[in-house]
Amino acid sequence: MDTGSIAWMLVASALVLFMTPGLAFFYGGLVRGKNVVSTVMYSFVSMGVVSVIWVLWGYSLAFGEGGAFIGNFDFLGFKDVSTESEDGIPPMLFAIFQMMFAIITPALITGAFAERFKFSTYLVFLVLWITLVYAPVAHWVWAGDGWILELGALDFAGGTVVHINAGVAAIVAAYLVGKRRGVDRGVEPHNVPFVILGAGILWFGWFGFNAGSGLAADGLAVSAFLVTNTAAATAMVVWAILGNIHTGKMSGVGAATGAVAGLVAITPAAGFVGPMGAIGVGLGAGVLTFYAVRMRHIFGFDDALEVFAVHGIGGIWGAIATGIFAVGGIGLVDGDAELLVDNVIAVLATMAYSLVATFIILKVLDVVPGLGLRAEEVDEDTGLDIALHGERAYVGDGAD
Amino acid sequence: MVKIEAVVRPERVNPVVDALLEAGCGGYHVLNVTGKGTQQGVEVFTGRGATTAVRAALPKSVITTVVVDSLKDAVVEAIIAASKSGEEGQIGDGKIFVSPVAEVIRVRTGERDDAAL
Fold it and tell me: Which run of H or of E encompasses B45?
């Protein structure tokens, strides 16, 4: 057994899991104080629900070899998922690593409907979305018989499966849930240090996300690590400069968002571009997501935490940038457009499927008696923390 | 001159403050507090979310403004209109306290009383 790779992949899996509580703080700091427990809970509870589903049927549906479009039931309850292997990492370790991606992807969506989505409905949404949206797309892109893999599109660590998938689902959710009450004058993040802390944890964990996606402790992991950092750093600098140009000040939230945008964009490209390509990825990510965030009201949806602008647009750019900057003769920089075309097809297919499937799931949840998408108005006004979780994040020294 | 202190629901602070400025107030300040009145408080977990639940004081906001006597009625009406829950109101909408103010001085210029408001 390749003990070096096993050790690395165990650590990488833990790093990716740590991104979910990191995301919780990144999002939590951006909302109003009366909703921070609720916002953090959307991410945290995904660790519970998705972990269980993954073992029961999620992994099997995503990675069983059931054909071009979906897996099968070969691995229900993780049966026949071996802890041994002769070359490469054991199948169970692969399944563990993949589980961490499945956990964070729906958590990304929650930024769009934060501060008003009904928590009980969210729990049901998690189960349905992982089963009906995440597993199929993961299958297409990463399973041995998946049609996007066979097509030739290259998505190293999940630009489509994770970011574009979640980004499009986010816009659909924002549209169906409706705007938050009383936010016409904009919402000030209630805790900027949380946002920066969250971004720092995401950046740290992303080394597992990207450098682990080669499934081995080797030169590719080393290269993926370096380009991940370079793209994040470049995008942060771009955001800082653009923010300064437009406002004269350098926002902490802007710097944090820039770094995350760069990380999103390098996700599909991490195994295929070199250091200078990474700078190109970061530059594009920074510019495109900065203006996407500035223009986010263009459709009139309240995507509360700009999920589509950062993850959707960042992921789309990442897929295109992979086609442009990929080394080894397969990129546009070397005159070959085939990878670019294949990646664009992958992007469009993911967007279309995520849009339709998420729309149907949410529409159904909206009409099921006892569920519905939105918290009651009085609960939204009081704050979801007290109303839905019975807890306050910040307890004053007031009388009890 | 009178001091008007309005204890209102925190989510009504923005509408109330807009109404104050529209009614002619020169300024105000806001304090976030917890307290209990007719509305008996909320249930919160104290035992790791398992079973224990006690009632704790409610978050409210106190908006304070000092105005000339002639503005008092308009300001009180404006606060009520902006903080009452719908036509009927709900328990927990708050209270307004009006008290006399002895002197007002503007720090920058030294102007006093009505001229400082």
Answer: strand B42-45
Whichever domain contains A110, its CATH number is 1.10.3430.10
Do A19 and A205 meet the contact criterion of CB atoms below 8 Å apart? yes
Closest Cβ opposite residue B57 in set A182, A185, A400: A400
In a domain, A85, yes or no: yes
Number of domains in chain A: 1
Any CB–CB contact under 8 A between B53 and chain A?
A: yes
Q: Which residues pair with B3 in a beta bridge?
A: B66, B99
Domain hosting residue A133, numbered range: 3-382
Comparison of pLDDT for A57 and A378, the residue scoring more = A57
* pLDDT, tens digit (0-9, with 9 covering 90-100), for A60-77: 999 999 999 999 999 999
What Å distances lie between residue A310 and A68, A300, A335, CA to CA? 30, 17, 29
Q: Is A96 helix (H, G, I), strand (E, B) or coil?
A: helix
* Nearest beta carbon to residue B34 from set A185, A382, A399: A399
Nearest CA in chain B to A399: B57
Residue of B14, B21, B31, B34 for testing the chain A interface, max A β-carbons within 10 Å: B34
Give A316's Cβ-side CA count (13 Å radius).
15
Domain residue limits at B74: 2-116
Which residues of chain B neighbour A382 with C-beta distances below 8 Å?
A: 11, 42
CATH number at residue B52: 3.30.70.120
Split into its structural domains, chain B has a count of: 1
State if pTM tops 0.90.
Answer: yes
Q: In this structure, are residues A162 and A105 in contact, taking their beta carbons and an 8 Å threshold?
A: yes
The angle at the Cα of B42, spanning B40 to B44, to the nearest 5 degrees, equals: 145
Q: Say if CB A122 and CB A42 are below 8 A apart.
A: yes
Smallest CA-to-CA distance from A268 within A340, A210, A206 is with A210
pLDDT tens-digit map of A92-133: 999 999 999 999 999 999 999 999 999 999 999 999 999 999
- Which DSSP state fits B105? B
